[in-house]
Structure formats: C-alpha cells, structure tokens
Design a protein that fits this description.
single chain, about 425 residues, Rossmann fold, N-terminal domain of TfIIb, five-stranded parallel beta sheet
Length: about 425
C-alpha cells in the first residue's frame, strides 16, 4: 500500500526533530565532558613550564600543561560553558604567573644586604675601578678565609660536566657536586649524619638543605687547607658548585647558612633546547653506563630544571640587576652560555666568563702591591688585563708618579699564596706625555 504524501511529510518531520534532539543531547554531553576535564585539571594543578628566554625580568611567556596531559594551546570555540572553563584556566595561569614572579622577586631581594647583614656575595664590597676596569676587591675574602663560589647550572646534557672538567684543568678550580658529596657522605665513617643521608637516598627523599650545605662546606675547607699545609697547589681557589641551587629552598638555605663562609661570584648557566639534549644523552648512553641516560629520565630532569631551577636563575639575575641599580655595577655576575655549539665553541664562551671572574683576584693583588710601594690606583689609567691559561696574567697600565709617567707591565702567576707578581717591566712615557701637553 502506498503511503499518502501528507503522512510521509509528517513522518519525515518527526524523524528530523528526533535527530535534532539527539544532536543537542550529544553536544551537551560533549561540553559537559570537556568542562569536567578542565575543572579536574584545575583541581589537580598545572605544570608551569617557563620559556628558555634569558632576558632580565620576569617570564615573558608561560605555556600551560595538565599534569601528564597534552598542551592546552588548542583553541575551542563552543558554547558559554567551555568559555567559562577557559576563563578559569586563564585566571589560574595568571595567578600562578604572579605567584611565581613574587617568589622570584622575594628570592632576589633575600640575596641583597638590605635585608641581611651579608649578601649572597658575602663580605665583598661594591665594585671598584683599576685604571678604568671594574673589579671586585677580594681582600676581605682572603682575610676571612671565605670561599669563592661559582654556581654551575643547566639541563641534563647541557655540558656542565664537560666544561667543568676544562675549567678545573685550566683555572685550577675545585669542582664539587652536591649529589656526589651526599653519596660519599652516606658512606663516610664517623660522619654524624651518615644514617640520615643514607636513608634519604634509599627512599628517594630530599636531604635537608642544612645537611647538604654542611657537607659542601666541609669539602671546601678540606680543599682550601691542602694548599696552605703542603705549600703546593693553588691558594684563593674558586669552587664550582655543580647543580646547586636547584630550587628556592636551596637559595633560602644558602642565605641562612653560607654567606659568612662564602662569596658567590656568579653563575655559569648552560642553555640548550630539549631536542639537542636528547641527542647528546642518547649518544652518551652508549658509553656512560648511567642508569638515568635515557629519554624518559632526561625529559623528567629537563622538566624539573625548567619548573624549579630556571626560576632560581631568574632570581639570581634579578639580584644582579638590583645590585647594579644600587652600586652602578654588580658584584654578582650571571653568565648565560649558549650550549648548542661544539665543545670548543662552548669552551670559548666559558673561558671569557672565567677570565672575568679571575681578574678580580689579579687586580686586587696589583692594587695591594701598588699601595705597598706607596702608590695609588688614582695614578693608574689605560689598564688592560689578559689571563693566559688560567694561572698566568699580564696587567698593563699607565702610572703617574710625581712628574714621571711610565707604562708598567706586570706578570702574575697563581700559586699556593694566591696571585703573586713574577716580573715587572717599565717603559717611560715622559717624552710622549710632554709632546701631548
């Protein structure tokens, strides 16, 4: 029997209405699921991953990730329910960014002497000038037997270990890894906290920062005594503290326990993107034998570095800026080094940074010698410093004594007593001076 046209029309309209109702129901369910995912993400919290930008100031861009999930950069244009969820996500991002920036500012200011008797740079006075070259007078460090410290920071595979080995070989520094000190401390006979350290390492717990810094100080004291006891080696040595500070708790612990015994000259920060680090780590895994040389572990360590250590670097950079604003120059020097090049390329950048740190002791020694001779740095101009192979330096400058003007060239060598003058060459500039006048 053929269905009448009017009945067919009504049937089609009823079918269309049911399809629309089903579509609306599915859409509502989909939006409810999306909203619940967003709400669950807010309840669990977010991973805030900072960019690798090295500009001073605060984080310019912070992508959002759910823990264990994908990036939230995908845009949805649905209905008001998801818009509200997105607004909550954006609000949480801004709140977390503000909180992180406040933490950075607070940590930076805690490193300044305005809030404490000593800054992170210990007893170092504001920068001085030697013939036009800014430098730090390290006399107080030698008198108080304070240790010179440079932090070495960077992601896994960024080159910290390789470059530290070269620094130690060239500049006769001492390389100290907090992790290695903890492992050796756990097995050290007679060490009062050995059981505590061993328990923390076995259970994977964080060792109290006071214990870590105590081991670090013991190691620095022992190394410093070697030169004075044996009259061999090198005095006034710089200690490379590898992988520290990792987070704000480390900075707070350092400021509480270390400024009386140390002066942080700055930090070497090796920057390298994740894709380059992955290739290096997989190549290193072929021979290293390290259990953590695998992609999964490397990515976790890199995320930890971004989440916890990069904000610390920002705080140190901010402290440098605050010192520069107060003194016209900074005692603290944070050097960001591009770690993507070859070992030799990165070494060239590292040497330039280390030369700038070493010159402080060289110019301090030169100033002291001038004063012992009855001279003054006020009589010095046109100074230049060249560091050769880390343990030899040449300082040249014009010096006026009475009506006499001479160019002096002093060669300095690094030994058990620190930097000592090995030779002095003088060349009279009176004829040239008289012609100019």
């Amino acid at each position: 029997m053929v269905e009448p046209k009017q009945a067919t029309k009504h049937r089609r309209l009823r079918s269309h209405s049911r399809m629309k109702a089903t579509t609306k129901t599915q859409a509502a369910v989909s939006m409810a699921i999306i909203a619940s995912i967003a709400t669950a993400g807010l309840a669990r919290g977010f991973n805030i991953v900072s960019t690798a930008s090295r500009q001073r100031g605060f984080f310019p861009s912070i992508p959002l990730h759910f823990r264990g999930g994908a990036s939230s950069s995908t845009s949805f244009h649905c209905n008001s329910s998801f818009t509200l969820a997105s607004q909550r996500v954006e609000g949480a991002t801004m709140e977390r960014t503000d909180e992180l920036n406040n933490d950075i500012e607070e940590a930076a200011r805690s490193c300044m002497p305005l809030h404490r008797s000593l800054a992170i740079t210990g007893s170092l006075p504001p920068p001085k000038s030697f013939g036009g070259i800014p430098y730090l007078d390290t006399t107080s460090l030698s008198e108080k037997h304070s240790h010179r410290v440079i932090f070495v920071l960077g992601g896994p595979g960024a080159g910290k270990g390789t470059q530290s080995e070269r620094i130690v070989d060239t500049y006769k520094c001492v390389h100290l890894s907090v992790g290695e000190l903890l492992r050796s401390g756990a097995e050290k006979e007679g060490y009062e906290h050995a059981d505590l350290v061993k328990e923390c390492l076995v259970k994977g717990n964080i060792v109290p920062v006071e214990v870590s810094l105590g081991l670090l100080r013991i190691a620095m004291d022992e190394k410093a005594k070697e030169a004075s006891a044996n009259r061999e080696g090198y005095g006034s040595r710089i200690f490379l503290v590898d992988g520290f500070p990792r987070n704000f708790d480390n900075i707070n612990g350092w400021m509480k326990h270390m400024p009386s015994y140390t002066a942080v000259l700055g930090a070497l920060v090796y920057n390298c993107p994740m894709e380059v680090l992955e290739k290096r780590i997989m190549s290193r895994a072929e021979t290293s034998g390290r259990s953590d040389d695998n992609l999964e572990s490397a990515r976790k360590r890199f995320n930890t570095f971004q989440r916890e250590t990069e904000p610390v670097v920002k705080a140190l950079e901010r402290a440098e800026q605050l010192q520069n604003d107060e003194f016209g120059d900074s005692q603290l020097k944070i050097v960001n080094i591009d770690g993507t090049g070859s070992v030799e390329d990165v070494w060239g950048l590292t040497r330039s940074a280390m030369d700038a740190y070493v010159k402080n002791d060289v110019l301090t020694a030169n100033t002291k010698l001038l004063q012992e001779e009855g001279g003054s740095v006020d009589d010095v101009s046109n100074a230049k410093v060249e560091i050769d192979n880390g343990v030899t330096a040449v300082v040249t400058y014009d010096r006026k004594v009475g009506d006499e003007v001479a160019k002096e060239c002093r060669t300095w060598t690094h030994g058990p007593a620190g930097w000592t003058c090995a030779s002095l060459d003088k060349e009279s500039l009176n004829f040239e001076h008289n012609n100019r006048t």
